[in-house]
Structures are given as structure tokens and as C-alpha cells.
TrEMBL record, chain A:
Keywords: Cell membrane, Membrane, Sugar transport, Transmembrane, Transmembrane helix, Transport
The protein, known as: ABC-type sugar transport system, permease component
Subcellular location: Cell membrane
Regions crossing the membrane: 205-230, 289-309, 345-368, 398-420
Bilayer topology annotation: Multi-pass membrane protein
One GO location term (cellular component): plasma membrane
Keyword Transmembrane assigned: yes
Nucleotide-binding among keywords: no
Protein's organism: Gynuella sunshinyii YC6258
PANTHER family from the UniProt entry: ABC TRANSPORTER PERMEASE PROTEIN, INNER MEMBRANE ABC TRANSPORTER PERMEASE PROTEIN YCJO
One BP annotation, GO: transmembrane transport
TrEMBL record, chain C:
Keywords, comma-separated and alphabetical: Cell membrane, Membrane, Sugar transport, Transmembrane, Transmembrane helix, Transport
Pfam families for the chain: BPD_transp_1 (PF00528)
Subcellular localization: Cell membrane
Function according to Swiss-Prot or TrEMBL: Part of the ABC transporter complex MalEFGK involved in maltose/maltodextrin import. Probably responsible for the translocation of the substrate across the membrane.
InterPro entries for this protein: BP-dep_ABC_trans_perm, MetI-like, MetI-like_sf
Membrane protein topology class: Multi-pass membrane protein
GO molecular function: ABC-type maltose transporter activity
GO-annotated cellular components: plasma membrane
Taxon lineage: Bacteria, Pseudomonadati, Pseudomonadota, Gammaproteobacteria, Oceanospirillales
Domain spans labelled ABC transmembrane type-1: 65-257
Family that this chain belongs to: Belongs to the binding-protein-dependent transport system permease family. MalFG subfamily.
Name of the protein in its database record: Maltose/maltodextrin transport system permease protein MalG
PROSITE patterns membership: ABC_TM1
Length: 436, 446, 271
């Protein structure tokens, strides 16, 4: 009794651990990310505080503090005693400090580069560029544009530079100078307000609907029925042939299609005999691209329906067919009155199941058209991938990508719960029969 | 004597620290590079050799191992580098487009190169100042330019002659474009004529780049658009210029000189076609010279092709070209010594002689003034002519963290107009909606 | 049964494009042909040069193949180990929250897993497995687990429980019974799941592409995709040869284990 109760969790836990860590946790994290402004620029693990031109713009514009922005934006290096004292404490090279005092005392520089230039003229200058920068920093009398690791460090530097801030100004400076991400509903707002969201949804609809109806159901049914009426051996041959697309790795499988559609490929070569100019058939128009996308995915998708329908047809007692043969029913009548009624459940199953699969799948589209030409074949999942992992200017939009992914996640959850309802989940999880 | 001996011993012990061998492994990764661009990473290996010799001469022992990798395309490369950097496994040196600097600098993935080498030192002080500006962000120089380029407008000479241009006209063509006398719409008319005469197939009169790229900002500039406000440094979206740009592509499709579904044509097909006179007008980059005369086998480039700036769109704009330098960037390794070595390698790799190897092999342009005096460069007709004719008029994209989104939106509108899904006005209106939604305050909409 | 002529003719016509694709995959790798012509001109082994010399700027094909084998076998082993024990627990033992767990496996199985890439990347980075084969193995296995558990549970359910009863009454422990008596009963299912997982890992492209882009961890799918993406060396015959090399183990396994695989794919997978 005891053993069995502890053995269950023991045998389950390794798998549970894996699935929780690398499957469930990412789902939760994606949900969290979708409410942030995360991108490459903000980093993932947090940010720093930096008075940069961009943050000054925000301070002047969003917070209406143009005067403060002007003050903080100034850079000034002044050679004075306080800086020299700092150097005396830090540097063992006293000759250099003396020389600075002697030659540069009282001078001011607006750019660090200018001060460095002056330092490089000295006889006792250090060899190393980094050293010169350290020395120059000692005379900095403004905040500068170096990043600080904490808000307090930034505020202290501002105070040291002689600028006093009110409480609200402090908040404004901290918020505008922070380079990391923050919480926001922006992603969802953006998604709802953007016209291309509708386009992606529409594309997804076209893709799922056509592939499902024409291939995953329609063509699969044709294959199953036709192979049913063939001798077993050739039936098996055709079923094997149509399984090829499913077992071929996507990269290779799409390559074969590219060979068909390429401007020097099969179609062009074939049609050259009819005086049709060679062209890239896959990408040369939006319609063509869609036709190919649906074919590419459909050839893969048809095989699963084919197998399920085939085994369902096999399960129909042969006597029914013999009886109808005796009654002189045509083949079409057999299909209509015997086979199809008994395929109701498998058809429903394939519809539900493949809808979900198609919603989430994009690897074939990514490899074939990458959403082109002109974004016409960019479905929702591919858009999420592009947003989160590709960007023209190296600034990946993690947050917005996660929000797009989240929509799919919710869709997937709702649909799969629905489909558990339909398929009588309770029957599947009847209690184990052995209780010792 | 004892004190002398101990003094010697002491000094020996003190200096022995310097003679300990230092081992460094520096990895350099380049994006969007094919065989012709091999010197992007090889230059770093050459620099390592020189630096080690310098150290040996100075009596120090230094070992540097350079690991090179090139990615052929940009997407995989940027994805890999950003994610690797995010997890602290970034390569030491990255060769990428300057437009990545803003985002990567803000997140601290890269560190300013000027913290490790002096900008007054050779050869940095010889680099064209505008290129150094392009490699800067927040008043800090983050990287050194790795190459310069320009994006010329091309015309097939033989077709021009058949359209009735005399040899003198064809030679004066670049000047007519530079002064703004010959505009984009004149070009469309000529392209139409060439098609009607049967010189080129329909859709080949004007044969633009087949994928999104920096090139498409040139047309925006041609119609008087501006990308960045010189005072506030904010991004600028000029609605009128964008509308005219979108309209230009709509008109090109309407006249039948550019295909509606041109975007997405495979690159290799495109290269083969333009290098063999299948197109009347097209535009590309200085590096196309290597491809046309190399892989595509066009023997007499100058006899067949005329090149110039991108023509002005109308009176409000000007003839222009865009330079999109790649830069050597220094990633944050949490170790100043390693970063300093990497910075020195970049510095040496930018020497005129070494950089010229890349410039000539890949048909890019030089980064330093001195390269005009390097025989390999000076004797190269393409490098010299392109440098003189194009580089002075070249603008660059701004370094701004929002630029990626900004670009995306501009491009989406252009594509929608081009493929006939929207009118120019609709496309601009939608772009503005989207700009306001995504980057409210950082962009000025005119 | 009546004549099978008509369906045979229709099926043959419908299958022509598919058959041609795979036929030319074979032909093009060993022959020279003019671009744009469909008739080969002569025999050559030149397209297979990648087997004995590294292609410019590419990793060594054998190293990449070894990576792929390691990736696929370890993933398969992991999936088998974890799902066979977990499925048994779910099928035979009383576990608190069993219904939820099973329902969860169902839901996860139909889940857009690829959309979680960014979060997955972060977790891998946190545990220090980004850009390693081990990292991709763990992720791939975790994503395959719900399916494996679901399938094996179905098979365990069909094992007559009298067998177990007898063993347990003889004083064997529950665990021993599972290992020595029940597992052999579902051998065919284990074999099918093994083949299936192996093929799924062998074909996987997006996970290794994003999570292990480094040269040292490259697998064949990424290698081939990189080759195709490089437009300065467009060579369809070479792509096809690498592709054929890549797909050979798949075809071999398919031919040998066709029956089991049919069961598996019928049982429902993604796609």
C-alpha cells in the first residue's frame, strides 16, 4: 500500500521535472514577458542608469523639464585641487600629478577627449590609454554619460556635480535614465491598434483553413479511400510514398520544393518547352506563394489523416461491404452510406487536432518563403518569431514577440480544452485497476 | 656588494612578471559575409601576428589565438550574436552594420573602443571623420569602420545608346543626375521606352534590389525626406517624402517597368540578369562590382555599365547615395585586459594596407585617406572612381535604438504600396498610426 | 473486391509530383546536367566532394554528423527513460492529481512550443547550457515528453493486469514487476517511440538554429540550411547531395520500421 503510493510520484517525478522546467516555466515566463518592454536595447536581466541624449529627450519632452535636461547634458572637466587630491591618493606617479598641477591648473574642458589630448602632451604621461581616462575622470564635474549601476549612484553623482533635485525631479531623472525594461500593457495595446495584426490573423486563417480543408481532410480522405480499394501491396506502397514528406527533415523537404519552383528548376524547365519564360514560381506572386505554402504544408499534413482514416476504414466489418456488393451498390454509394458515416469521429478528431498543429507550425513557411513576398504569407506564429528573434537594427523585440506568442498560447489552451471536452476526456482517464 | 646583489634580485623578480607569457583567445564573428569578404576576420588574424611581433620586440611574450567565423546572412548572425551576448558568451569582436550600435550600446553588450585606444593614434586619426561619426553613439566612438561603400545607380550603356543617347551624353549622364537635371521620373520614362523598343523584357526597365535593405532610404532622400533632426537628433518621418516615395514605386508598377511582385526574386537570378544587360536601370552597391566581374563573368564592366548617384525624385530632393559601413565592435567581456587586446587588434586591422586588402577583394571603399596612396587601391579604377563620384554625397542611417522599428514600419508601407495592397496615401497614414503607437515621443512626424 | 484500376490511375497521377521530387533528389546528386534541362548528361561524384573536403567556410561534415547522432540518440534515450516510467505511473498507479496530469499532457502535446523560444533561451542561459548540444537535447526531450507519455500510457492500459497481479502475489515488488514483466510487454511501442523520437530530433531545425548557433554544436539541419542561405555559392546539386546524405538514415529507418511508424503517426503527432 505504502510502496505503491510513494512509487507513483517517484516514477513520475523525473518527467515531471523536465516538463515543468523546460515547458511549463517557459509558458509562464512568456506570459510575464508579454507585459514588459523588453528588447535587446533594454537587456533581459535589468538595466543601468545613464544620462544619454535619448534620456535627456525624454526628460525634456515627457517630463517637461527642459532646463534640467540642459543642465544634466553639460559636460565639464575642470582641473582643480579636489581632483588633484584624489589623484594624489590614488596615483603613485606623483611627478605626473605635479606636472598636471603645474601646467593645467585652472583649465576647463567640455569634452573628455580634449582633456585627454592635453594630458597626452605631458612628459610624465602614462603609456596606457585606460590610465589616461582614469586620470581625466578625476576632474569630471558633471554627471557625464557613463552608466551607473544603481539609481543612488546616479543621484549621488548629480548631487556632486552641484545640481540639486526635488523629489519629483529625482523620480523623473531615475525613470528617464533607466536603460532596462519596465512593466507595461503597451504590447497588447499596440497589437490591438495596429493594422498589420489583422493582416497576420487573416493570413493565419487562410493558411489553416485551406490547408486543413484541402489536404489534411480532403486529400487525406481521398488517399485513404483510394488505397482502400487497391490491392494491399500497392495500397501500402502509396501510403508509404505519401508518408515521405512527413518523415523528411523540413530543411531538405523545402529544398525539394524550391527545386520545383526555382527559376532554373523543374517547373521552369518543363514549361520552357511551351515558351513560358522561366521565373521563380514560388515567389513571383502572392497567389503563387500561397499555393506553394498550402501545397508544401498539405503534402505533409495529408499523411496523418490518411493513416487514421485508413485504420478506421479497416475496422469496418468486411461483411458490410459484401452485403452492399450483393445489393449492387455502386462504389460511390458504398463510400457515402457505409464508410463516411463511420468516419465521423476520426474526421472530427483530425479537424481539431490539425487546427492546433497548423496554428503553431511555421518552420516550413520560414524555410520556404520566410513570409514573403512582401509579408503576404506571414502567419501569426511566424510573425511572433520574426518579432522576437529578427530585427533590422539588432534590436530584438522580446516583449512584443512574447505578447504575440501569448495569443497563440491562449488559443492553444482554449482549443485543446474544448477538444478534451468533445472527446470525452473522462473515458481516457479511468482509474487504474490495480490497487495494492 | 650585498645590497647590489639583492637589488638586482629584486629588480629581476619585479620585471619577471612582465616576461610571463600571456595567452589570449580572441574570437571575431562577421555577419553578411561571403568569400569575398574573408578579410573582415582575416585582418584580425593578421593584426594578431603583428601585435605578437611587437610584443616580442619589446621583450614581452604574448600569445594570441584568433578564432574566426563568418555568417552569410544577417538574420541568423544578429540573432546568434545578441543571444550569445545576452548569455555572456559574446565573441570578442563583432563585424556588423553600424545600425546595431545604438541598441547594443544601450544594453551594455558593447563597450566604446575609445576607452581602450586613443583616437589621435595612427591609423584612427586618418579615418574619414564622417565614418567615425557613423560609428559613434552618445558622443562616444564605439567602433572603427571596417569598410565604406556607396550604393550606386546603374544603367546599361548599350540600351542607352539605342535609346538615342550619344557617347558624350552617356559620359555626361552621372553629372546630369548629380545636378538633379535627370530625375527618377525621367528614368521611368526612359525605362518604358526601352521596354517598348524591346530592348528589355517587361518589368525589367527599372529593376531594383530584391529585398528590403538600406537602399530604400535613398529614394526617401531623393524626394526630400530627412531621417534625423539635426538639432534634437530625433528620428524624422516626413509624410510628404514618404508619400512621394511610395507613389514612385506605384507609378513604376503602373507603367509596367517594375514588376508588382519584384520583392522576393532570388538574389542569384537578379545578379545574373543585371550583369548581362537584361535590365535597363537598376541600383546596387559598390561591392556588386566584384560579383558582376567575378562570378557573373562580365569582363568589360566600364564598357557596359554606367554608374551614378541615385537620381533626385523631384525639385524638393537631391541626388544621393547611402553608405552603410560595417564596423568592428568590441563586446563587453567583463575583463579590461582582454578588451584592450581586442581593441588593439581592431586598431591594427584598420591600417591602410590591411584594410585595402578587404576593400579591393570585396569591392568596398577604403576607410582612411591614406589608402588613396596605396598602389593596390590607387591602381583600382573601380575603387578610385566610386570613391570620387559617390562618397562625398553619401549619407548614412542614424544610430538610434528605435530605428529598427522605424525602418520596419517604413518598409511595410513601401511594400504594401508596391504590391498594390494600398494607395500611397493609405500606406503613409497607416505608417503614421503605427509610428505613433510604437514610439510616441522619439519620432518627429512632419 | 472489384477492379482497382480507376483508383490506381488517379492515385498514380496525383503522386507524380511527389515521386518526381524524390526521384530527382537521387538523380541530381550523381549526374551533371545543364541548368534548366531535365536530362542528365553524365555521371559524376563531384557533388559529393563535401564528404572528403570541407566546403569553404563550413564546419567539417563528419563533426556535424557526429553532433547530430549524439543529439538524436541522447534525446531518444531521455524520452524513452522518462516517458516509460511516467506513463506507467499514470496508467497503473494511483497518483494525486492524476486527471490533471493526464489532461495537462494532452494539452501540452497540442501546444505551440516554438513560440516559447525566448523564454526557453533564458532558462538555458541561466543553467549555462546555451549554445551546447546538451541544452538542445534537454529542450527537445522536454517538448517530446507529453506525446511519449500519452502514447505509452495507451499501451500500458492494454497490458492485461492479471500478469502483474500474478507477479505481485508471488512477492515481487511493484518496481521489479514493471521492469521485468510489464516493460517487455510493450516492446513494440517502445521501439516505435524510439524511432519516432529519433526521427523528430534528426529533423529538428529551429531549436538548434536558435539555441546552439555555434560551429562546435552544429547539426546537419543547420548546416544544410546555412549552405542554402549562402547565395554566393548557389549549387542545387551540392545542396541535394548534402540533403540526401542527411536524409539517408531517415529513409533507412523508415523502410525497416515502416509498420511501427505507421502506428505512431496514426497515433497523432504534430504537423
Amino acid at each position: 500500500m505504502n510502496k505503491s503510493t510513494s512509487l507513483g510520484p517517484f516514477m513520475l517525478s523525473p518527467a515531471l521535472l523536465f516538463v515543468t522546467l523546460f515547458f511549463l516555466l517557459p509558458v509562464v515566463m512568456t506570459a510575464v514577458f508579454s507585459f514588459t518592454t523588453m528588447s535587446t536595447a533594454t537587456g533581459i536581466t535589468g538595466g543601468r542608469y545613464q544620462i544619454s541624449p535619448a534620456s535627456l529627450r525624454v526628460l525634456a519632452g515627457d517630463y517637461q523639464l527642459p532646463e534640467l535636461a540642459r543642465q544634466l547634458g553639460q559636460q565639464r572637466y575642470h582641473i582643480d585641487d579636489s581632483g588633484l587630491n584624489i589623484l594624489r591618493e590614488e596615483q603613485e606617479n606623483t611627478e605626473l600629478v605635479d606636472e598636471i598641477q603645474q601646467k593645467l591648473s585652472g583649465q576647463s574642458f567640455t569634452q573628455r577627449r580634449d582633456l585627454e589630448r592635453a594630458l597626452r602632451q605631458l612628459n610624465h604621461r602614462p603609456r596606457n590609454v585606460r590610465k589616461i581616462k582614469e586620470i581625466a575622470e578625476a576632474f569630471q564635474h558633471t554627471v557625464g554619460s557613463e552608466p551607473f549601476d544603481s539609481a543612488d549612484a546616479l543621484l549621488k553623482a548629480i548631487q556632486d556635480s552641484g545640481v540639486t533635485l526635488t523629489e519629483s525631479e529625482q523620480q523623473a531623472v531615475i525613470k528617464s535614465s533607466y536603460t532596462g525594461w519596465h512593466w507595461s500593457l503597451e504590447n497588447y495595446r499596440r497589437m490591438v491598434s495596429l493594422p498589420d495584426t489583422a493582416t497576420a490573423l487573416f493570413n493565419t486563417l487562410i493558411y489553416v483553413l485551406f490547408t486543413l480543408m484541402l489536404f489534411n481532410l480532403g486529400f487525406a480522405l481521398c488517399l485513404a479511400l483510394m488505397t482502400h480499394y487497391l490491392p494491399p501491396r500497392s495500397g501500402a506502397f502509396f501510403r508509404g510514398l505519401w508518408l515521405l514528406p512527413r518523415i523528411s527533415p523540413p530543411v531538405l523537404y523545402v529544398l525539394l520544393w524550391k527545386w520545383v519552383a526555382w527559376d532554373t528548376g523543374f517547373l521552369s524547365a518543363l514549361l520552357a518547352n511551351f515558351d513560358v519564360a522561366p521565373r521563380n514560381w514560388m515567389l513571383n506572386s502572392a497567389t503563387n506563394a500561397w499555393v506553394f505554402i498550402i501545397l508544401i504544408n498539405g503534402f505533409v499534413g495529408a499523411s496523418m489523416g490518411m493513416l487514421i482514416f485508413s485504420s478506421a476504414i479497416k475496422a469496418i466489418p468486411q461483411t458490410q461491404f459484401w452485403a452492399s456488393d450483393v445489393d449492387g451498390a455502386s462504389r460511390w454509394q458504398q463510400i457515402r452510406y457505409i464508410i463516411l458515416p463511420q468516419l465521423r469521429w476520426p474526421i472530427l478528431f483530425i479537424t481539431c487536432y490539425q487546427t492546433l498543429s497548423l496554428l503553431a507550425s511555421f518552420d516550413l513557411i520560414l524555410l520556404a518563403t520566410d513570409g514573403g513576398p512582401g509579408g503576404t504569407t506571414e502567419v501569426w506564429s511566424l510573425k511572433a518569431y520574426h518579432t522576437a528573434l529578427n530585427n533590422y537594427a539588432g534590436n530584438l523585440q522580446y516583449g512584443y514577440g512574447a505578447a504575440l506568442a501569448m495569443v497563440l498560447v491562449v488559443m492553444g489552451l482554449v482549443l485543446s480544452l474544448l477538444y478534451l471536452r468533445v472527446f470525452k476526456f473522462d473515458r481516457l482517464v479511468s482509474k487504474p485497476r490495480i490497487e495494492i | 656588494m650585498k645590497w647590489l646583489a639583492s637589488g638586482l634580485l629584486c629588480s629581476a623578480l619585479l620585471t619577471s612578471g612582465l616576461t610571463l607569457a600571456k595567452d589570449y583567445t580572441i574570437s571575431v564573428v562577421a555577419g553578411g559575409s561571403s568569400d569575398a569578404d574573408s578579410y573582415r576576420t582575416e585582418a584580425i588574424a593578421m593584426a594578431a601576428d603583428i601585435l605578437m611581433r611587437e610584443a616580442a620586440v619589446a621583450g614581452e611574450s604574448l600569445n594570441i589565438k584568433v578564432e574566426q567565423r563568418s555568417y552569410n546572412n544577417w538574420d541568423d548572425f544578429k540573432q546568434a550574436v545578441t543571444l550569445a551576448a545576452e548569455s555572456g558568451k559574446a565573441p570578442n569582436i563583432v563585424v556588423t552594420g553600424h545600425e546595431d550600435i545604438a541598441a547594443w550600446a544601450q544594453s551594455g553588450l558593447i563597450v566604446p573602443i575609445e576607452d581602450y585606444i586613443s583616437l589621435d593614434s595612427w591609423p584612427v586619426n586618418n579615418i574619414y571623420p564622417n565614418l567615425l561619426n557613423i560609428a559613434s553613439y552618445n558622443n562616444r566612438v564605439y567602433g572603427l569602420p571596417q569598410d565604406a561603400e556607396a550604393r550606386p545607380f546603374f544603367a546599361w550603356k548599350d540600351h542607352l545608346a539605342k535609346l538615342g543617347y550619344s557617347a558624350a551624353d552617356i559620359d555626361a549622364f552621372p553629372d546630369k543626375i548629380a545636378t538633379g537635371e535627370y530625375t527618377l521620373y525621367d528614368m521611368l520614362n526612359d525605362a518604358k521606352k526601352a521596354q517598348d523598343m524591346g530592348l528589355v523584357e517587361p518589368g525589367y526597365g527599372f529593376y531594383p534590389r530584391v529585398s528590403n535593405g538600406p537602399d530604400y532610404w535613398q529614394f526617401y532622400t531623393s524626394f526630400g525626406g530627412q531621417l534625423q533632426d539635426p538639432q534634437s537628433h530625433r528620428l524624422v518621418f516626413d509624410q510628404e517624402a514618404a508619400r512621394k516615395t511610395y507613389q514612385f514605386f506605384i507609378d513604376a508598377v503602373k507603367m509596367g517597368v517594375t514588376r508588382k511582385n519584384h520583392i522576393g526574386t532570388p538574389w542569384d537570378q537578379w545578379y545574373a540578369e543585371v550583369a548581362h544587360g537584361k535590365a535597363m536601370f537598376w541600383h546596387g552597391g559598390t561591392w556588386h562590382y566584384a560579383r558582376y566581374t567575378g562570378k557573373e563573368g562580365l569582363t568589360d564592366f566600364f564598357g557596359n555599365i554606367q554608374f551614378s548617384l541615385i537620381p533626385a525624385g523631384d525639385r524638393s530632393g537631391k541626388a544621393n547615395t547611402l553608405t552603410h559601413p560595417l564596423v568592428y565592435l568590441l563586446t563587453d567581456q567583463k575583463n579590461d585586459d582582454v578588451q584592450e587586446i581586442a581593441a588593439k587588434l581592431i586598431q591594427i586591422a584598420s591600417e591602410p594596407r590591411i584594410n585595402t586588402l578587404h576593400a579591393i577583394k570585396s569591392s568596398h571603399l577604403g576607410i582612411t585617406k591614406e589608402q588613396l596612396n596605396i598602389p593596390l587601391y590607387a591602381n583600382n579604377r573601380w575603387a578610385m572612381e566610386a570613391t570620387e563620384r559617390l562618397l562625398p554625397y553619401a549619407s548614412a542611417m542614424p544610430n538610434d535604438t528605435d530605428f529598427g522599428n522605424f525602418w520596419n514600419i517604413y518598409w511595410k508601407g513601401l511594400e504594401a504600396a508596391w504590391t498594390g495592397q494600398k494607395t500611397a496615401e493609405q500606406a503613409v497614414k497607416e505608417a503614421v498610426t503605427e509610428l505613433r503607437a510604437t514610439m510616441a515621443n522619439s519620432v518627429i512626424i512632419r | 473486391m472489384r477492379s482497382a484500376k480507376l483508383p490506381f490511375v488517379i492515385l498514380s497521377i496525383l503522386s507524380v509530383p511527389l515521386a518526381l521530387m524524390y526521384l530527382y533528389l537521387l538523380i541530381d546528386t550523381f549526374t551533371i546536367s545543364e541548368p534548366g534541362s531535365l536530362m542528365p548528361r553524365g555521371f559524376t561524384l563531384e557533388h559529393w566532394r563535401f564528404l572528403w573536403q570541407d566546403l569553404p567556410g563550413r564546419a567539417n561534415i563528419w563533426q556535424v554528423t557526429l553532433n547530430t547522432i549524439i543529439f538524436a540518440t541522447i534525446t531518444t534515450t531521455l524520452v524513452l527513460l522518462l516517458s516509460s516510467s511516467a506513463a506507467y505511473a499514470l496508467s497503473r498507479l494511483n497518483i494525486p492529481g492524476r486527471r490533471i496530469l493526464l489532461g495537462g499532457a494532452m494539452v501540452l502535446h497540442a501546444f505551440p512550443s516554438v513560440t516559447l523560444l525566448i523564454a526557453i533561451f533564458l532558462i538555458l542561459q541561466y543553467v549555462g547550457l546555451y549554445d551546447t548540444i546538451a541544452g538542445v537535447v534537454i529542450i527537445k526531450a522536454s517538448l517530446e515528453l507529453p506525446l511519449g507519455i500519452w502514447i505509452l500510457k495507451g499501451f500500458y492500459d492494454t497490458v492485461p493486469w492479471e500478469i502483474e497481479m500474478a507477479a505481485i502475489q508471488d512477492g515481487a515488488s511493484r518496481f521489479y514487476t514493471w521492469r521485468k514483466i510489464v516493460l517487455p510487454q510493450i516492446k513494440p511501442a517502445l521501439a516505435a517511440l524510439a524511432i519516432f523520437s529519433f526521427l523528430a530530433s534528426w529533423s529538428e531545425y529551429i531549436l538548434p538554429q536558435v539555441l546552439a548557433p555555434g560551429n562546435h554544436a552544429q547539426v546537419l539541419s543547420v548546416y544544410l540550411a546555412g549552405l542554402i542561405a549562402d547565395d554566393s555559392h548557389f549549387d542545387m546539386a551540392l545542396f541535394k547531395s548534402v540533403g540526401l546524405f542527411y536524409v539517408l538514415p531517415v529513409f533507412a529507418l523508415f523502410l525497416i520500421f515502416q509498420k511501427q511508424l505507421m502506428n505512431m503517426y496514426g497515433g497523432g503527432t504534430k504537423g
